[in-house]
Amino acid sequence: MDWQWALAGGQTVSMGWKPDTGFLPFRWEGYSEALLLYALGLGSPTHPLPEESYAAWTSTYRWENLYGMEFLYAGTLFVHQLSHVWIDFRGIRDEFMRRRGIDYFENSRRATYVQRHYAMENPHHFRGYNKDCWGITASDGPGPATLCIDGVERHFHDYVARGVPWGPDDGTIAPWAAIASLPFAPEIVLPALRHFIDFYPEMSSKYGFKCSFNPTFSEATDSGGWISKGYYGLDQGPIVLMIENYRSGFFWQLMRRCRYLVRGLHRAGFYGGWLSEDTLG
Predict the structure, then answer these.
(1) CA 12, CA 28: separation in Å to the nearest integer?
(2) Does 272 map to a domain?
C-alpha cells in the first residue's frame, strides 16, 4: 500500500480513488474508524504516512459535552467500536488524549453511556426506546418512507449512518451496536442484551441478531414494527470479536504482536500502558 500516494497531495488520507475521475473530494477527517487506518498507515514498512498526517487528522476532532460527559464526539456508535476490535486502547494515549486526561477506551465507554442517556430521554418519542433499548448506528432501516404515526409525520431512512443526539434518528435500533460495546460498559450492555432477547425474540435466531429493527414503523400501536430481513457480516463480526475481547482479550493480545501496528501507534505518539512494555516497536 502506497500510503504517501493516498495523501493526494494533502496532509490527511484521501477516502478513495477512481481510475476515471481520480481522487475523491473527501478525506479521512474528523474522529472515525480511521483511527485504525492511520495506525496502519504510519506503521507501513515501505511507504508510510508521515507523522504530520496523524496530527493533521486529530486537529479535525470535535470535543463535546453531552449529558454531563465530555468526550471525543462521533454520533454513530460504530465509530467508537471498530478500531477497538483490533487495538487495546486501555492505558495508551496519543497527544490529543493526554491533553484530555483520558484514553480512547474511556472515550468509547462515555460514548456508550451517551447512547443510553439519549434513549432514556427519547426526545423524538420513538417507540421502544428506554434504558435497556438503545444502539443507534449505521444500519439498515425501513425507508425511504413517510408515515403519519400517532398524529406525527415520521420520515424513515433505509441504510444511513444514524447517530445521537443530532441524528439522523428515525427510531431504528441496531442490537449489534449495543452488544459490540460490551468491553466498555458491561453493566449496561448485558441488560440491553437481555432486553433484546426477552422483548424482541423475533430479532434473533441461530444465526444471531438481525441487523436492526424499528418499533415505530407501523400505524398500528400493537404492531411489532419493522425488522430487517438481513444478517450482515459487518454486524456479526464485531459482536463475536468484542465478546471475546471482553472474555479474554484474545484479539487485543494477538494484535499486540503485529510489529507494524505497534510501530504505527508509536509514530502516532501513543505511549503508556502495554506499549511501554513493547519490544516490537
Answers:
(1) 6
(2) no
